[in-house]
Write a structure and sequence with these properties.
By secondary structure, this protein is an alpha/beta fold. The chain folds into two domains: about 55-160 and about 265-310, 3-Layer(aba) Sandwich (D-Maltodextrin-Binding Protein, domain 2); about 160-260, Periplasmic binding protein-like II (D-Maltodextrin-Binding Protein, domain 2). It has helices at about 10-15, 20-30, 45-55, 65-75, 85-100, 110-120, 140-145, 195-205, 225-235, 245-250, 275-285, 285-295; strands spanning about 5, 35, 40-45, 80-85, 105-110, 125-130, 155-165, 190, 220, 240-245, 255-270, 300, 305-310. Strands 4, 5, 6, 7, 8, 9, 10, 11, 12 and 13 form a ten-stranded mixed beta sheet that branches. Strands 1-3-2 form a three-stranded antiparallel beta sheet.
Length: about 300
């Protein structure tokens, strides 16, 4: 699986406290491996870890230990590691860096459950989550209590999103509700384990006493809403579950709304006193940021920046 955390040359320069020119020289010589995404140069977390530790490590370190030490170093130096996959988080990161050019704000593209576990382990200090609990009907709070036991956390709303089915134009299979996934000619494309969307599906199947083995294609996974919508658009599946926003970005897909989900940020309560987190809160409450998110379509920002719970 692709490393979910990667860096630009500029981020490497800030992290290592060297000039961008020096970073580009290291990349040119091959001291730090890199790859391209379009016109952008990216350096994987694993390659950076190897470069930082290969010269002088007093004791042999495992890759897992190196990863933890790197992420904790970023956090201890007042940097932010933000877990989550929605494009709104990318915009938030841009606003954070605009407000404070010296702030190291890095993104980890993992699902809701992995993000909460990273927060618990201290390898992230903000995570986005949209986990629906089938027993209580609540979003996020039950999972924060279970996965961060005994921790004092604050849950702040980022946006609300409409969740629903991606189907072919005209909805030829007549898919409007969860039991329709059992249709004999219906093939689903699923999300990966740990994502909030996968949890939503599994919780509804459990409540309806539906065996996932009876759903054709249940084991086939994609890593994002866009990828799921694209699979439906290409005829690889009849239906997938995801956000309205992704449906707006993919041609040849219709959207069948099911429910509105709450997409929150989770962080430790004592971090709220720090300047970087105060900057974060001010951005969430700013008219400029809300207007940009609203301009994307598919989001409800009516409660953005409001505290949903303190645990």
């Amino acid at each position: 699986m692709k490393d979910p955390l990667s860096y630009s040359p500029e981020e490497i320069a800030k992290l290592l406290k060297i000039s961008k020119g020096t970073v580009y020289e290291l990349l040119k010589r091959g001291d730090i491996p890199s790859y391209r995404v379009g016109k952008q140069i990216r350096i994987s977390q694993a390659d950076l870890q190897v470069y930082m530790h290969v010269a002088d490590t007093p004791t042999k370190s495992t890759p897992a230990n190196i990863q933890v030490s790197l992420e904790k170093m970023i956090i201890e130096n007042q940097g932010l590691i933000i877990c989550g996959q929605d494009i709104v988080l990318d915009i938030l990161t841009r606003y954070l860096e605009k407000q404070n050019p010296m702030l190291r704000s890095l993104r980890s593209y993992v699902g809701s459950i992995d993000g909460l576990l990273a927060l618990y382990k201290g390898t992230a200090n903000i995570t986005a989550t949209h986990l629906w609990d089938g027993e209580t009907g609540e979003y996020n709070i039950p999972y924060v209590r279970r996965l961060l036991p005994g921790q004092r956390t604050t849950i702040i709303n980022l946006v609300y999103r409409t969740l629903g089915f991606y189907v072919a134009p005209g909805n030829p299979q007549g898919i409007y509700d969860w039991p329709d996934l059992l249709g004999p000619d219906v093939t689903i494309i699923n999300r990966d384990k740990g994502s909030g969307t996968r949890v939503m599906l599994d919780e509804h199947l459990r409540n309806l006493n539906i065996d996932s083995r009876d759903i054709k294609g249940y084991e086939n996974e994609e890593m994002s809403h866009i990828a799921v919508a694209s699979a439906v658009a290409r005829g690889m599946a009849d239906v997938g579950l995801g956000t309205e926003k992704a449906a707006l970005q993919v041609d040849e897909v219709e959207f069948v709304p099911l429910s509105k989900e709450r997409y929150d940020l989770v962080l430790y309560r004592n971090d709220l006193e720090k300047s970087n987190f105060q900057t974060l809160l001010s951005i969430l409450k700013s008219i400029e940021f809300k207007e940009e998110v609203n301009g994307l379509g598919g989001y409800d920002t009516s409660q953005m920046g409001e505290i949903m719970a303190e645990l």
